[in-house]
Amino acid sequence: MISRERIGDLLLPLATIVILILAWHYGIQLFDVPTYLVPPPGAVLEALNRGLIGGTLWPHIGATVLAIITGYLTGCIMALLFATMVSEFSILERAVYPVIVAFQSIPKVALAPILVVWFGFDLGSKVVMVALICFFPCFVNAAIGLKSYSPDLVDLYRAFGATRWQIFWKVKVPSAAGHIFAGLQISVIMALLGAVVSELVASRRGLGHVIAASGLDFDVAMMFACVVILATLGVLASQLIRFVYHRIVFWESQSAASTVVAH
Amino acid sequence: MATADPKLSLQDVSVTYRTSRGPLEALGPLSIDVADGEFVAILGPSGCGKSTLLKIVSGLLSPSNGRAVLNGAPIERPRQDVGIVFQQPTLLPWKNVIENVLAPIRVQGSYSPEARAKAEHLLEMVGLAGFANHYPHELSGGMKQRVAIARGLIHEPHLLLMDEPFAALDALTREQMTVELQAIFERTRKSVVLITHSIPEAVFMADRVVVLSARPGRIVQIEKIDLPRPRGLETMVLPEFTAMCDRLRRLFTH
Fold it and tell me: Is residue A39 a contact partner of residue A224, using CB atoms and an 8 Å limit?
């Protein structure tokens, strides 16, 4: 049974969206905005229809999603490995952590053209970009999470005679799970950003490429359509992570508090 | 109680922490023997080094001086013949009750269907039959501490160490748990070291009460408690009980 409150939680945001679309539709009529600058919702819908039902957009969606998934997994797995090393070996924490934080101040978007030179126009440069941009939020949250265990619990496990890695797997990792998921959640949105930036800079496929190409054709409706698809992808991915989080970290009822939001 | 063949023997044990403001004497030197099947309560004010003492006996900390011997062997590292119950239940929130009880067994890699049966039996003993598949967040504070006690007993330790196990509970639950722990002790007859700062709790449960001074914790007095066993709520109204509590209380309020 879905409770009345849950239905409200679904319907109220939808109502907001409907109102925004109506405001958009009537706003451009009212203020006489030229449609080559802001297309009406109907035109965007028509572009979506052209792209999705007509099928021209699917290869591009596929390319973007493939880059996101590959890059996200690569970046997050690397982040978790580094977070493990940094949290378990204090010498590495002192040697590596400040360097990673310093690297974080580089705007990764500025690296996009370099990555294209190194890894080419196709999947390679996109995956590297997505991985780079996903790394930090996941790393920082996991590193903090792996230090947020209860010292009593660790003492208890030591008293049981547990080895260091038993303590790591049985106590520290589950204690960090909430933080890790918070990092994964932030990273998944960053992954979208990374993929699109990469495609905007130089690419022959992907939604970012379609946006850039449609811009040259003054096909603003198609540009909007791509943005709508990207937004939908973002919401879906983020909801998927939330769903998995609630399934796995069932003992933390509240949504991940005490998280570092970093990007 | 005879201490001819002590289960646990602390010999001139002391602990000094090095701090930025110079050495800090936390404990002792003190010597305590606990006999097989004996219940010793260690009573002291806050900051008397009780937790330090617990860490020594559980092998988490080596004394700066002196020797700690359990079952004839010096305590040099954590060992598997000691059960521990902390002030906080310290359960794994992501494991259900039975898995929490089995945690020491899992660490030692000696899980078997018999171990599970034993865990179920222990849960029954602490009054949690039927809660095996509940998670800690579904239990009250008193129930969680019962799980912790069952976990402390699962690997059949020679010695059960308890660090103010009921301090975090409300007064009513606390009294009830004290009576129940007493009953569990009389059934299992483990050696027990209970660290507490409740005088009635110490007198009610223990065979001997060791009174420690404030930092550095040293032995002020050892009192033998001769109240008849089994003890129950009626013990608490005996004149001997009240007299002993009074005597101990005076040690702290001279």
Answer: yes
Distance in Å from the first CA to the final CA of chain B: 29
pLDDT tens for A64-93 read: 999 999 999 999 999 999 999 999 999 999
Q: What is the pLDDT of residues A47-68, one digit of tens each?
A: 999 999 988 999 999 999 999 9
Does domain A39-248 fall into CATH 3.40.640.10?
no
Contact B137 A153 (CB under 8 A): no
| Residue ranges per structural domain of chain A | 1-33, 39-248
Contact list in B for residue A245 (CB cut-off 8 A) is: none
Token pair for residue A49?
A: 């229809």
**For helices B141-153 and B97-107, what crossing angle results, to 10°?**
30
What local confidence, expressed as pLDDT, does residue B99 receive? 95
> What separation in angstroms does the CA of A143 have from each of A72, A80, A133, A135, B21?
18, 8, 17, 12, 32
Angle between helical axes of A220-248 and A173-201 (0-180°, round to 10): 170
Which neighbouring-strand residues pair with B221?
A: B211
CB within 8 Å: B79 and A156: no
- Taking alpha carbons only, the member of B32, B25, B31 closest to residue B49 is B25
- What confidence tens digit (pLDDT) does each residue in A14-46 have? 999 999 999 999 999 999 988 888 999 999 999
Residues of B with CB under 8 A from a CB of A: 55, 58-60, 78-80, 82, 84, 86, 88, 90, 92-94, 103-104, 106-108, 135-137
Model confidence at B43: pLDDT above 80:
yes
* Exposure class string for B201-236: b at 16+ Cβ within 10 A, else e: bbbbbbbbbbbbbebbbbbbeebebebeeebeeebb
Question: What is the distance between the alpha carbons of residues A61 and A186, in angstroms, rounded to a whole number?
Answer: 21
The minimal CB distance from B107 to the residues A155, A162, A174 is found for A162
> How far is the CA of A224 from the CAs of A2, A36, B148, in angstroms?
34, 12, 59
d(CA A64, CA B212): 69
CATH numbers and ranges of domains, chain B: 1-81+161-254 (3.40.50.300), 91-156 (no CATH)
Query: Measured between beta carbons, which residues in chain A are less than 8 angstroms from residue B107?
Result: 157, 160-162, 166, 170
Q: Which residue has the tokens 């003993």?
A: B125
